[in-house]
Amino acid sequence: MSLSDTIVALSTPLGRGGIGIIRISGVDALNFAQRLLCDETFAPEPHRVSLKAIHDPESLEILDRGLVTFFKSPHSFTGEDVIELSCHGSPILLTRVVDALLRLGARAADAGEFTLRALSNNRLNLTQAEAIRDLINAQTEAALQQASRQLGGELSSRLQPIKNGTIEIIIPLESSLEFVEDDLPDIAYEKIRLQLANLIRTTDALAETFSAGRLLQQGIRVTFAGKPNVGKSSIFNRLLQRERAIVTELPGTTRDSLTEQIVLRGIPLLLTDTAGIRASGDTVERLGIERTRRAVIDADLVVVVFDGSSTFDREDEEVFQSVGERKHLVVLNKSDDEAFNCIRPGFVDDFKILSLSAKTGDGFDVLQDEMLAPFLSASKVEHNDFLITNARHYDLLRRASHSLKLTDDLFKEKASEELLLVGLYDALKYLGQITGEVTPEEILSEIFKTFCIGK
After folding, report:
1. How far is the C-alpha of 453 from the C-alpha of 455, rounded, in Å?
2. Relative to the CA of 119, which of 208, 306, 308, 315 has its CA 20 to 30 Å away?
3. Residue pLDDT, tens place only, 250-270
């Protein structure tokens, strides 16, 4: 994409609404606005709102009367001249206004291009730019809080001491290499090794928060599996607290997979109800069962459901075996039934079994706790701590830590300054890629492809 063009895009979601905002950014933004308003003398005061008639520049037809706001460079989101048109939220109207601007010579903005221009003009760094995307996509209060903290520059401020500490180690090594013939004294080596150990601990501690941060950002994929009529859909509906899946007494009612999201303790869970697994000659049911097997493979956690009011059979065993080594919970449903028997099936491994009733809700508090337990126990941090939520940041932190550890190993071997400096400069490079200081253009392009148009 060219950053010298004047770009335009609808910045509010598609669809009908009370208002729709069209954003124009670039050197010709004010000129295009003047032509769109049919007012060449229009010279708005920056950061003031004007009520103006918006025209079709060819037919001069009045399309709408809307609010026009001018943000003068460099005091705008992008750092360029920016015009925002607040129109009535008719999709047809907004399309006509954008089309009119395109005919005047503006270019349709690419995904994330406004934010990329803000990055290029030093209005924010790369971690803050990514935080804008995460803020828009946040699905829970906890995810929103983390994105807001990153947008405020907290990740950059946490990385800065690591960068500064690495530079403090580089300086005496460079000085020794350039100006001193003798090696560094032992006391200097010991001081540097202590500094290096502290940097490694700090970097690793920040990277380790990703296990919790990933849960907030991506959620946990939970799939319910079992043979027909064991109560998977009933459990699914009760967790959602609404009748999403059709439930009948007939086996095989669920023919396809249904996925819905809930939030437990600030963590999003993607719940998938599936078709019962059994041998079937019905073509549609076989397709549903195949989708069930794929959902089991893709799941972070499989809840295997058995009917506790009936005897276990070969189909139950096949369902359990299909889970393989994946994280799983074993549930005996229908604890409200007089025939309920909580005896462990012989084919189930030595694993905790939950008894519950989808009909009465008994046991569901324990089920919710157990669904989160395998993931929360792997996280050693609290959600009110600052968390790494981005896999790219995590990968670069691990690379930086690895480079620092290699440097530490070389210190133990009394390696030359030239070798020691390689790992230190690599660590600085990886840390710089997190904030965008040294990020290659092709990586930036891939990152901003994940943004929405108009942001």
Report:
1. 6
2. 208
3. 555 455 678 888 888 778 888
